[in-house]
Amino acid sequence: VPARKNEVVREIDIVEEVLRLYGYNNIPLPDGVRTPFTLSPRPDLERMRLDLGKHLSARGMYEVFSNSISKSGYVKKWMPDAAEQVIPLMNSLNAELDSLRPSTLFSGLEILQYNSNRKQNDLKLYEFGKIFSRSGSSYAETFVLSILMTGNKEATNWNAKKGILDIFDLKEELQLIARQLRIPYEETPFTEQHPLLEAAIAVYSGQEVMGVFGKVKPAIADAFDLRQDVYFAEIFWIKWAGYQQSTVRYQPLSKYPEVKRDLALLLDQQVPYERIKRITMEQGGERLREVALFDVYHDKKLAGKKSYAISMVFRDEEKTLTDKEVETAVSRIMRALEKETGATIRQ
């Protein structure tokens, strides 16, 4: 074998060279060829990402891919407290691209700016990407799902309802994602001011923060020449997927009737409905099947309070529930709500 053939390092490489010189066409074929066929299923996370992408696309969003290399000036200007966590590039060829991004927001805003300059102002985008950070000598690479929304809810059409996208549209998408993946969903407002978002809301599963969403601060949107409200969510989706509940099990419809009860609660403005629902489901036990919010009431006379009207559905799979059993459960729920949130029955 000539010395210039650096790729010949194994016995099988020599066999291949002989076959090539002798000629593959001169080798007789056997009567039959057998080959093993193995099916390797895709990893669950890859399947989950594909399914989630199909879901978001079906909801009218467009998937985008942005550069993981970003401008450190964004962080220095808008996130000064996180400037030390930015990972710089050692030999940057472009002064505008000199660090790894700590958030997908800025690259997403660049995409919105590019489209806005071409009169595309109604956009709903999502991206599966990575963000990067460091702490001392250690480095972190985090997989995230980001969503950006701006403009009208629907394209202009004679039979489409006109409306501007708002924070509740983004919240709905996150709740649908949680339902799609069978993941617990809770949220609570940020106790401190978020550097990039107005009225930022943290998403929880269990006691762990899984992401954040809110309205992009107008000053930041204006820096990218965006004159309309922009809403942004960034979810640690792989970590969130770790809370996925067990496989769905099908069962026949119960032959026993449901019992419905309503509660009109008076509570502080800061108490979110998700907390009310979680406490109600915990205290209601296995017989409590559904909890739904069907009315919200605000009034100046309530003086910093609000009213939630919730509906509860009880059902036992083995028997018909008695009024006493249901009332006992409702009393237990009400005591827990009063203790943990200060809620009272609205008179």
Order of helices and strands: HHEEHEEHEEHEEEHEHEHEEHE
Rg value? 28 Å
Total separate domains: 2
Main-sheet strand order equals: 1-5-6-10-9-8-7
Largest sheet: 7 strands, mixed
| CATH C-level name of the largest domain | Alpha Beta
The fourth-level CATH homologous superfamily of the largest domain is Bira Bifunctional Protein, Domain 2
Percentage of residues in strands: 25-35%
Kindly summarize this structure in a few lines.
The chain has helices at 11-22, 44-58, 72-78, 105-116, 167-181, 218-223, 237-241, 273-284, 323-341; strands at 62-63, 69-70, 87-88, 99-100, 123-135, 138-150, 186-189, 197-205, 208-216, 230-235, 259-268, 288-297, 305-314, 344-345. The chain has 347 residues and is an alpha+beta fold.
Helix-strand layout with pairing:
Elements: H1 11-22, H2 44-58, E1 62-63, E2 69-70, H3 72-78, E3 87-88, E4 99-100, H4 105-116, E5 123-135, E6 138-150, H5 167-181, E7 186-189, E8 197-205, E9 208-216, H6 218-223, E10 230-235, H7 237-241, E11 259-268, H8 273-284, E12 288-297, E13 305-314, H9 323-341, E14 344-345
Parallel strand pairs: 1-5
Antiparallel strand pairs: 2-4, 3-4, 5-6, 6-10, 7-8, 8-9, 9-10, 11-13, 11-14, 12-13
Helix pairs in contact: 2-5, 8-9
Commentary on this structure:
The protein is of the alpha+beta class. It has two domains: 45-241, BirA Bifunctional Protein, domain 2 (2-Layer Sandwich), CATH 3.30.930; 259-345, Alpha-Beta Plaits (2-Layer Sandwich), CATH 3.30.70. Helices cover 30% and strands 27% of the residues. It has nine helices and 14 strands. The chain has helices at 11-22, 44-58, 72-78, 105-116, 167-181, 218-223, 237-241, 273-284, 323-341, and strands at 62-63, 69-70, 87-88, 99-100, 123-135, 138-150, 186-189, 197-205, 208-216, 230-235, 259-268, 288-297, 305-314, 344-345. The protein has a seven-stranded mixed sheet, sandwiched between helices. The protein has a four-stranded antiparallel sheet with strand order 12-13-11-14. Strand 7 and strand 8 (197-205) form a beta hairpin. Helix 2 (44-58) runs antiparallel to helix 5 (167-181) and helix 8 (273-284) crosses helix 9 (323-341). The termini are far apart.
